[in-house]
Amino acid sequence: MKKGFLSLMFVLSCAGAAHAESPDVPKSGREAASAWSESGLQKVSVKGLDEFYARPGVSFAEYHKVLLKPVSVAFRRGWLMTPLPGSRDRISSADARRIKDKLAALVQEEVAAELTSSGYKLTDSPGDDVLEVGMSIVDLFIAAPNVRNSVATSTYAVSAGEMSLVAELRDSVSGDVLARVFDHTSAQESTWPHQITSVENTAEARIAARAWAGALRAELDLAKAPH
Description:
This protein is of the alpha/beta class. It has one domain. Helix content is 27%, strand content 24%. The strands form two sheets. Strands 1, 2, 3, 4, 5, 6, 8 and 9 form an eight-stranded mixed beta sheet that branches. Residues 1-23, 152-160 and 189-194 have low confidence and may be disordered.
């Protein structure tokens, strides 16, 4: 389980869009494993990912381009009703949307950078050699959200929170599901509470997003390697 991946939600970069969570997106590895095995997918061991299920006999060798779908983000149930640290106020809908959009943008950016640097071409159109990748951040819990309209406070905690990543790989032409990914992670815990800052969270977010993108890229590379 990758430490610090949770901090993706604190990102300060702008752009991207986040969509409502699909009701059938799993919230745990056990839920993912049950649903995906029942759908005919088989578990594959992939370094850096909690769960990776693929269609039997599937090969990614024919895919040379990637179509990245917009990343969706969903908070943990009830989190938006929790008062902000040091305040009786709850997070505003505007701040919630901003957090979602910025997290979605960072994940999209890091995955795109990892793939293009390894020779994969990104495209906006389906094709015979195009792999479609959809990603969702689910069950997002934030200990100290960075919001614009709250009173300035310092938040101390042993962990920034937790979240899960769900990804789906499809053939862009047929729409057939080739593989699904689930990865839950918690921020690194300290022995004693420490102040959580945006600088620390942003740095961890970049490292964590690149780690996940690297795991995906490595799996695609493996399929293309001579056997």
